[in-house]
Write a structure and sequence with these properties.
This protein is α/β, with parallel strands linked by helices. It has a single domain, classed as Alpha-Beta Barrel (TIM Barrel), CATH 3.20.20.70. The chain is built from 8 helices and 13 strands. The protein has an 8-stranded parallel β-barrel with strand order 1-2-3-4-5-6-9-12, surrounded by 6 helices. Strands 7-8 form a two-stranded antiparallel ribbon. A two-stranded antiparallel sheet has the order 10-11. Helix 1 packs parallel to helix 2, helix 3 runs parallel beside helix 4 and helix 4 packs across helix 5. The chain is globular, with a radius of gyration of 17 Å.
């Protein structure tokens, strides 16, 4: 795959998977900078191409009183500061057509949330910015159906599409990953595995989504073995008190060991 489409991305010759990682949502400048600095120190050590992830707002919430953000432009300016301070690319998700042009002024990759990946106007607006568009597979969609989302990007004059698998609904309150979908989706576009949202347990009666972060390494190992191009990991130094998706985020203290193990697996797979 051609990672040179993303400005300032490093370690592209390492033959490693690439990584999108960071907090679920931008809560403050201090937290974003703290997480970015830690992840960058790890990915530089392991020579992993890295893109900092943070949502500038959260529109898909279970309850009206759930945290949605600190203000759109305030959060986007923090993402830009992360990029400029650490010379690292950034990604954020968009929810409305008007978000595309706004966010494109600040970040390098625009992400389409899984619930919205069939929204043609949104996908087209993202593609027309000229940015890489990361299309998250709908929890309700087959891997094969993602070819149509990719085609919308291409029909909009862009060849900068990625696909991210984030699990498929299994009953009302659980997600599963069908690893047969990875090679299938890689036929259409570079494919990323979201190893944190794939372990969500949605639709809890409390209105707060649950998760199984203890299974993150299990899912990530399987993805690397199956030649996924990239990994997506939400991480926080204090998941229990994170303002969004804390139940399925990885504690930042565990990230280095996880990535070290995954890089070792990748090297083994590359030598097969």
């Amino acid at each position: 795959m051609n990672l040179s489409l993303v400005p300032n991305i490093k370690h592209t010759d390492s033959n490693n998977f690439f990584l999108l990682a960071g907090p679920c949502a931008i809560e403050s400048e201090d937290m974003a900078m703290r997480i970015a600095e830690k992840v960058i120190s790890i990915t530089d050590k392991l020579e992993i191409p890295y893109i900092f992830k943070g949502s500038f707002k959260k529109a898909n919430r279970s309850r009206i009183d759930s945290f949605t953000g600190i203000g759109d432009e305030k959060a986007l300016k923090i993402l830009r500061k992360v990029s400029e301070t650490f010379n690292v690319p950034t990604v954020t998700d968009i929810h409305e057509v008007s978000d595309a042009a706004l966010a494109a002024q600040y970040v390098d990759v625009l992400q389409i949330p899984a619930f919205l990946v069939r929204q043609t106007d949104l996908v087209v607006a993202a593609a027309k910015t000229g940015k890489v568009v990361n299309l998250k597979k709908g929890q309700f969609m087959s891997p094969a159906a993602m070819q149509h989302a990719v085609q919308k990007v291409k029909d909009s004059g862009s060849d900068k599409a990625w696909i991210t698998d984030r699990g498929t609904m299994f009953g009302y309150q659980d997600m599963i990953v069908d690893f047969r979908g990875i090679p299938e989706m890689r036929e259409f576009a570079p494919t990323i595995l979201d190893v944190t949202h794939s372990l969500q347990q949605p639709n809890q009666t409390s209105g707060v989504t649950g998760g199984r972060p203890d299974m993150i390494e299990t899912i990530a190992r399987a993805g690397v073995v199956n030649n996924v191009d990239g990994l997506f990991i939400e991480t926080h130094f204090d998941p229990a008190n994170a303002k969004s998706d804390g139940a399925n985020m990885l504690d930042l203290n565990y990230l280095e060991k996880l990535l070290t193990n995954l890089v070792a697996i990748r090297k083994t797979v590359n030598n097969l």
